[in-house]
Amino acid sequence: MDDLGDLPDFQASLGAGATQLYAPFGSGQFLVLPAGAVLAVVSGQPGLALSLVRRPDQPGSTGNYAMLDIQITENFPLDAALSLARGLSSGATVRPISIDLGFARLIPGGPGIVLPPEMTAPTPLGWATSEGARWTHNLDVSTGELIKGAILGGALLFTARIEFSIRGVAPRAPAVADFVPADLLAALLSGRPDGLIAAPELVERLQDPALPLGVEGGVARDRVSQILADRLAAAYGSLVPAPAATDPPYFRLAKPSSAERVRWDLGTPTAVSRAFVLQVDPLSGLRPAADLAALIHEVTIPPLDLGMREIVATANLPPNRVGLPAVGARVSLPPAPPGRPSGIDKTAMFTPPDDQARIELQIDPDEALDYSVTGFAIIAAGSSIYQLEAEPRQASGEWLRVQGSDLPVTFAHLTASDRMMKQASVSGALKYSYAGKQATQPIALSAGAADVAVAVPTGAENASVTLTATTASGQSISLNPLRPGVIRLDLASFPGYGPHRVPVTCRFNGGESPIEIELESEDGSTQGSVSLAPSAPTAEWGYVAGSPFCPGYRYRVRGGGWSNVLDPGPLGLLPDGTPMKNSEPPNDQDSESAPVSFDIEGVHVAARPGDPSTLLYLPATPAPELDTSSKPTLSILKMPQSTVLQLGARFALPPNGEAALLRTIAAQYPALAQAKLQPAQVKVTKAAVLLADEKGSTAELATSPSSAFPPYAAIFSIKLSPAQAAQAISGVGGRRGVLFVDYTIVPAGADTPQVKRCDISTWFAGTDGLTHVRALG
């Protein structure tokens, strides 16, 4: 059976108005459906662009066309969903549901508006943006002019409809369905030679007792019909565009040729897909825009040389790709004798954010433009380098739309909400097994860089994403491993955030006086009190934690002293207000006298003011990001047209560095043997890679945004000139004084920046770094 644990359970839905969510089939997070969608905002601008492309030497549609690019963002009511989920489980968390590929279409914005058919044609949808979906329409230039007028004139010419599917676990019932699939589907699709059937109609048709379908178990037919509809669509169908914009979602069912009879145990958990519809009004989202003309791009392309034809290739890929130095498609035309006895191979490389390439071909103007498309990618995950190719497919025409299925990779696309990034940075790794090797791709999200995509080879095994959120003070929370896909992080992803209920109980023995208990959330934003008496020994109090890093509460008997902070959960008391056993952690013990600050092997250590039992440390130098083999995630990729240096760095101690530092501190300062270590708070103003030339002059190759919180991870992908590549390779190969990583930091309470530098040659023993240099192509 497939791993179904983190999929939504279609049998366990919750809902209140626009807030709809599903419980996970196994243990995990509740999954929230989008309540709606609006036009996205990209770098402060509306997520809509219109390009009008003209080529004077080609008067037809291949030389003059328009391209409409639309990005939307879904509205996920996470806080409202969290309140519902916490009603079932006190430790519940929620996340946006993962949405499969679907279709988008433009529809008239009013009853009197007629749109050209090409505008209303469904277009494949790619969920490839940080917050939602993106799709492009290739249109006639006259249609583009119509849209241009609507944008500039503020006319609501069109709205949009999105049809999409969600993968989940079908409902179950103690029943068995017995049927011959070919016979049952033939009956269901009677009068439908195209195999199309609306999702609600499929459920309704399955209630017909005249169908060649036996159901054992005594379960009501209306309950069985929904289970069978889900499972038949999964086994024999696929989501297709609905015939009309007002229709419900449609599936196309394919009748099997075999007459074999099957028996389905409807109590067996089975992965299926359900279809949903969203409406969005892109043009109304343009009203706040100050400069609508900036959304329109007029492009004139120079004439092609005589005898040349062109293919325009586009791909809908996540824009902020890490560890993927090359991705594209190879277009191959077979020989066409006698005029062209040899085949043609051309390569389209996709570069964000446009991910568009033009391929020029020298072929006869009357030759049919039929070709094969082979997607390829190069993955650089730390020290693991993979050159991958997908199976070729046939295509034709001047427009080539490269889909995710054309590429030999899948993506883990991670984003974090603004409110999440204000409280913590996120670091982690994508890990998987492929071709007999373990691979690790570091991941870092921070304010200003809260969107990243990493690639997994198709066919990789045991792929998972591990993530840890860390605050400026060093507090951290790790999430359970996640399956690669679209991963949207928010405060609601963590169990400490949001509403909490505290059952308060007092164990009275009889005859005691009532007691009044005052309670307060850890951050002090919520206060309250409950009264307990022998006749009413239980009560409940609630609060909302605005941060998962500050999730607890404290209590006191009225007029007494406050308790230590308690984790969310029940509170059990004795009649005098003291906690029952295990209700409250012991108070911290005072630390013995110890030095205020000192240095050990270049690491600066200082006691936290007011808390000498907590030691804050400042690493001596930056350190490499390591893969699962404890090797630096550094690679130099030598390709035919360029050389790329990729590496990950962090301003932190190496693995097990804290434990080693504590042992050294305990040996030198026994009074601190029980101390706790935390990274000192600093502001990283810049993380940079520097290279020295043959004369010893050092220049900055690149900078990268560092996470705002420990471990201050930074990831670099740098194109090198031939001279730079030679120097960098020598530095990786053990030559000192050539290749460096600098972190410019300002410690908390200080005004003067400090530069912490490491020589990358020290990351490797001897010349071991040369094993991280790969020649590709």
User: Major β-sheet, in short?
Assistant: 5 strands, mixed
Give start-end ranges of low-pLDDT stretches.
582-593
Number of helices: 9
* Distance between the amino and carboxyl termini: 40 Å
- Helix-strand makeup class: mainly beta
- What percent of residues adopt helix (DSSP H or I)? 10-25%
Number of strands: 56
Overall form: globular
Word description of this protein:
With 777 residues, the protein is mainly beta. Helix content is 11%, strand content 44%. It contains 9 helices and 56 strands. Strands 4, 7, 8, 12 and 21 form a 5-stranded mixed sheet that branches. Strands 24, 25, 27, 28 and 29 form a 5-stranded antiparallel sheet that branches. Strands 47, 48, 49, 53 and 56 form a 5-stranded mixed sheet that branches. Strand 35 (461-470) and strand 36 form a beta hairpin. It is globular.
Write the SSE topology.
Blueprint lengths: L7 E9 L2 E6 L5 E3 L3 E4 L1 E2 L2 E2 L1 E7 L9 E12 L2 H9 L7 E3 L5 E7 L8 H4 L2 E3 L6 E9 H13 L4 E12 L6 E4 L1 H8 L7 E3 H7 L8 E3 L4 H16 E4 L9 E4 L8 E4 L5 E10 L15 E5 L7 E8 L5 E2 L3 E8 L10 E6 L6 E7 L7 E12 L2 E6 L3 E4 L2 E4 L6 E8 L1 H4 L3 E10 L2 E9 L5 E7 L3 E10 L5 E3 L7 E4 L8 E9 L8 E7 L5 E6 L5 E8 L7 E5 L13 E3 L23 E4 L2 E6 L2 E8 L4 E2 L10 E4 L4 E8 L6 H12 L7 E4 L2 E11 L5 E7 L9 E7 L1 H11 L6 E9 L6 E6 L13 E3 L2
Helix pairs in contact: 5-6
